Amino acid sequence: MFQRSVGIFNKAKSVNWNYSQILSLKPNVGIQYLLCLRNTSFFNKLPAEDIWRGVTAVSNAGKKRGRGKGSGKKVAKDLNKGQSLGLGKNSRVWPGLNSPVLKGYELVHSQKMTDSNDKVNGYMKLRDSMSNFKIMKLNPIDRGWSGSKMPGRSIGPPDSVGEEEFSSFDTRVLENKIVFIMKGNMGRKRRYSVLSVTGNGNGLAGFATAKAPEVRTALRKSKNRAGQKLININLCENRTIYHDFYTAFGKTKIYCFQKPDGYGLICHRAIQTICKVLGIKDLYAKIEGSTNVQHIVKAFFIGVMQQRSYQYIANETNLYVVQKQKAKSGYTDVKAIPHLPSTNPYNAADADYMHFTLGNKIVLKENKIFPFYFNSKGHQLYQTKEERFRNQANVRLRDLVNSYV
Questions:
Q1: CB 361 within 8 A of CB 257
Q2: pLDDT value at position 158?
Q3: Of 76, 98, 257, 397, which has the maximum CB count within 10 A?
Q4: Across the strands, what pairs with 192?
Q5: Residues 6 or more apart whose Cβ sits within 8 Å of residue 298
Q6: Is the model's pLDDT at 186 over the cut of 60?
Q7: Are 240 and 258 in contact (CB under 8 A)?
Q8: Collapsing DSSP states into helix, strand and coil, what is residue 174?
Q9: E-strand spans in 46-114?
């Protein structure tokens, strides 16, 4: 019986019988054939959002080639805005849709409604007022390193854990990229990798990397994970580092130098972002080798964690730590005095504070190249004339400030 039914099914498929011909064969056989038909398709298995995304989105191969970069920023025109069922150019009454099927004891039939030109004109004006595509604008203050890209942008403080809240924290994205992994049953699987750093601007900061299939999920995971890995870092005068230091991670080498008040942050943009959430305001950093963002972040955190205070250096070397301040006309400031004599005193003849804090690393500086006219007679005459106006702008500014004090 089963083999005969299969033969009838194949014959019915080959000659494209209709339902009445199939049911006329035998009741059981025809019903079995109808049950084995496919009643599902691509359009009723997926929701409307997935179907529309399949039509408008770009494939993975296209994304690798840089296609469809602005597809996520564009908002399509909503043609259903202000529409009512049954109203339009040919307004009609449809029983069961925009009117009841029974009105009292009478059956309502489909009929044409009165013309409503005012409503149609209102719909057209509303549709024309909407532009074809609306690009979401971003405040210039909220922009990242390059326009509206995520790296450099703030994503707010980490989520609260129980009653503990990260009220004074700010989180910045350092890296946002797409990574792939090959699965045996799913093929190439795409995920988003986000590296972010969070801090309270007072020496407390942390960083973390997180991956997720969606961008929003990866951002949230990275932000909360960074809040769980906070590191306390001591700052000198709550604005800069204690001393110059050298740090490295992988192929990345970083030289960091302490700078006076008002110098600013002259360094790589990733280090600049870390300093802002950490509370460092004055710093100069030079990177040699690889500029991998993750290596830069790890190397810089290793360096600031290995800082030594002035008192620690004084006790270790059994020497006074003294600093000359150029901003105060060479005023000498004693930073630390050794408490106890060290068992291994540091050789005073070899005492070089920069080499000591940099780990005996030497920073090579290029000699300044003067222009060809530097020693000429005309240039010397120009310098002589300009000497009387040297530093005049700064003096006027200082006098103006003192006048308001």
A1: no
A2: 94
A3: 257
A4: 178, 212
A5: 249
A6: yes
A7: yes
A8: strand
A9: 74-75, 92-93, 102-103, 106-107, 111-112
In one-letter notation, the amino acid at residue 268 is H
Q: How many whole angstroms separate alpha carbon 325 and alpha carbon 310?
A: 16
Residues 6+ apart with CB under 8 A from 46: 54
Which three-class secondary structure state does DSSP give residue 177?
strand
| Residue located via tokens 């004891």 | 105
Across 114-123, 139-148, 167-176, which has the greatest mean pLDDT? 167-176
CA atoms of 127 and 116, how far apart (whole Å): 17
DSSP characters over 261-321:
TT--EES-HHHHHHHHHHT--SEEEEEEE---HHHHHHHHHHHHHT---HHHHHHHHTS-E
- The 3-state DSSP class for residue 34 equals helix
Please check whether residue 296 is in contact with residue 271, taking contact to mean a CB–CB distance below 8 angstroms. yes
Q: Which of 231-235, 280-284, 348-352 is least confident?
A: 348-352
Compute the distance between CA of residue 397 and CA of residue 395 in angstroms, rounded to an integer. 5
Cβ proximity of 197 and 297 under 8 Å? yes
Report the pLDDT averaged over residues 216-241.
94
- Residue 5: the pLDDT is 47
Residues 280, 300 contacting (CB under 8 angstroms): no
* 52 conformational bin, left if phi > 0, alpha if psi -120 to 50, beta if neither: alpha
Strand partners, 240: 236
**Which candidate, 256, 255, 224, places its Cα nearest to that of 240?**
256
Q: What is the pLDDT, as a whole number, of residue 1?
A: 47
Please give the helix or strand (H or E) that residue 180 lies within, else none: strand 170-183
Token pair belonging to 272: 């600049």
The one-letter amino acid code at 161 reads V
Give pLDDT, residue 264: 92
Residue 310's nearest CA partner among 296, 301, 295, 320 is 320
For the chain, the average pLDDT equals 81
Which percentage of the chain shows pLDDT scores above 70?
79
Select from 64, 63, 46, 66 the least CA-distant residue to 54: 46
Structure token pair of residue 201: 């601007």
User: What is the C-alpha radius of gyration for the chain, rounded to an integer number of angstroms?
Assistant: 37
Alpha-carbon distance 151 to 173, whole Å? 5
Do the Cβ atoms of 254 and 287 come closer than 8 Å? Answer: yes
Q: Which two tokens stand for residue 386?
A: 């300009």
